[in-house]
């Protein structure tokens, strides 16, 4: 069977949240034919049976591939992309919800680019308090990191198969963060074109507890040193002491405001990121604080 687009969803114990994503994909307003590949990273919640049952409910081809050989979202994305039938591949997360025109918007954007990043909105699936904990990028603006290049967030990314084949997929050495940044940077340094797909909207689900958000921020920031070490020769600027001093002053100055529930999340997130960068710097012997 041939399709225009393959949608890859990396999954680990996702049967609770995946129905909303599959229902959103089933409701797409699209001229494209597409399949959905659930890439199972070793789930223990009956995901295989779940996919078999849902394959009889949805109007697209839904199938599961085994991605349990190595734990991590990068490996799951790679396994799903290798199994994809189409040359246009879209990747989204199991616990988010795609907008009604997401597939078409991503496919159109990929007519003009090799790699695209869509828009993530935080207001649909998260409480007002949780939204205060983490900043968002404006629609149509891809995020940047470490004063280097923009990148497509792994929760809303599209690519042509030639990009995946040329790069060999996401670097599975990035286990708890930084894998999407590394992939986008490597693609751009290889000469591929990255663009934004502002109309490709996904409702993004943040971590629902403060401790989970802080932990995620810590691991994301810990990967910064590995990114700097990997791309040092490609032009990532060295960091001096000024960012550390500036951030430390901000944390100290704003301690009194941590009594405010919304601000407490922001403060703890930034403190966790500072700690993550420091630990990553020691681990990878590259100053990234």
TrEMBL record:
Pathway: Cell wall biogenesis; cell wall polysaccharide biosynthesis. The keyword NADP does not apply. One of its GO terms (molecular function) is glycosyltransferase activity. InterPro entries: Glyco_trans_2-like, Nucleotide-diphossugar_trans. This is Glycosyl transferase family 2. The lineage of its organism: Bacteria, Bacillati, Actinomycetota, Actinomycetes, Kineosporiales. Gene3D superfamilies: Spore Coat Polysaccharide Biosynthesis Protein SpsA, Chain A. Belongs to the glycosyltransferase 2 family. Residues 6-167 form the Glycosyltransferase 2-like domain. Keywords: Glycosyltransferase, Transferase. Pfam families: Glycos_transf_2.
């Amino acid at each position: 069977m041939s399709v225009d687009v393959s949608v890859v969803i990396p999954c680990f114990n996702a049967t609770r949240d995946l129905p909303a994503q599959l229902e959103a994909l089933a409701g797409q307003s699209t001229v494209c034919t597409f399949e959905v590949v659930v890439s199972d990273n070793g789930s223990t919640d009956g995901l295989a049976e779940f996919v078999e049952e849902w394959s009889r409910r949805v109007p697209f081809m839904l199938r599961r591939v085994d991605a349990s050989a190595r734990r991590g979202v990068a490996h799951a994305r790679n396994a799903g992309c290798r199994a994809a039938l189409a040359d246009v591949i879209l990747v989204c997360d199991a616990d988010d919800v795609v907008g009604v025109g997401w597939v078409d918007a991503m496919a159109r954007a990929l007519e003009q680019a090799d790699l695209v990043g869509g828009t993530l909105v935080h207001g649909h699936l998260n409480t007002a308090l949780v939204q205060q904990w983490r900043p968002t990028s404006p629609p149509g603006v891809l995020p940047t990191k470490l004063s280097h290049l923009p990148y497509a967030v792994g929760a809303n990314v599209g690519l042509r198969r030639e990009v995946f084949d040329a790069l060999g997929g996401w670097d599975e050495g990035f286990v708890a963060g930084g894998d999407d940044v590394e992939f986008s940077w490597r693609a751009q340094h290889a000469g591929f074109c990255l663009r934004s797909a502002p109309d490709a909207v996904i409702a993004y689900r943040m971590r629902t507890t403060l401790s989970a958000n802080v932990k995620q921020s810590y691991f994301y920031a810990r990967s910064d040193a590995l990114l700097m070490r990997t791309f040092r020769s490609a032009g990532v600027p060295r960091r001096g002491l000024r960012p550390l001093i500036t951030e430390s002053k901000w944390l100290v100055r704003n301690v009194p405001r941590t009594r405010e529930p919304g601000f407490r999340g922001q403060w703890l997130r930034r403190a966790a990121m500072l700690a993550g960068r420091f630990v990553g710097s020691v681990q990878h012997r590259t100053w990234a604080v």
